Amino acid sequence: xxxxxxxxxxxxxxxxxxxxxxxxxxxxxxxxxxxxxxxxxxxxxxxxxxxxxxxxxxxxxxxxxxxxxxxxxxxxxxxxxxxxxxxxxxxxxxxxxxxxxxxxxxxxxxxxxxxxxxxxxxxxxxxxxxxxxxxxxxxxxxxxxxxxxxxxxxxxxxxxxxxxxxxxxxxxxxxxxxxxxxxxxxxxxxxxxxxxxxxxxxxxxxxxxxxxxxxxxxxxxxxx
Length: 224
What we know:
The protein is 50% helix and 5% strand. By secondary structure, it is mainly α. The protein is globular, with a radius of gyration of 22 Å. It has 3 domains: 2-41, no CATH class; 58-147, no CATH class; 154-211, no CATH class. The N and C termini lie far apart (47 Å). The strands form 2 sheets. It has a two-stranded parallel ribbon with strand order 1-2. A two-stranded antiparallel ribbon has the order 3-4.
């Protein structure tokens, strides 16, 4: 912490800081006392993102649903046109979902609830004249160009998989050393000991493989 302070010039606020330990870490209180930082437990929200030990469950993402619901309730009295409501959904609700989806893989149930709130807001809580799926089609196909959140979720998962195979980051190097080790990423099978994140990376191997090309060079790193 002193090194961080000297390199960055940032002053850490001890009173607002918390330290989190693994469940397997012994002597948590003693270690927290040495650091001089209060101990806390996960899950917790940081910059609006739920931080959990495992995969973020639907109940861990209530903050997103509650945020969207508050915004929708605030907009209802604005007397907006349908076009205005479309733009609010696009610019505000989708932006929030994009931000979270860059950090965690939202549970499908959470995505469905957010989309239901969006659809109810667009149709003022009445009968939906057009399905949400149709609204998410491109304009030339009769939609309004909203992007399905599940599609954004898949794109985020592919970005994660690309980061893994590209390497060069602490996260990618750690994941590789923990789960792949000396094996072959392209042929290894999912295991019960694999994290949800790594299983997600494995699940998207096929899409990645169809979109990349390998340069042979001396052939030492190419599996034929």
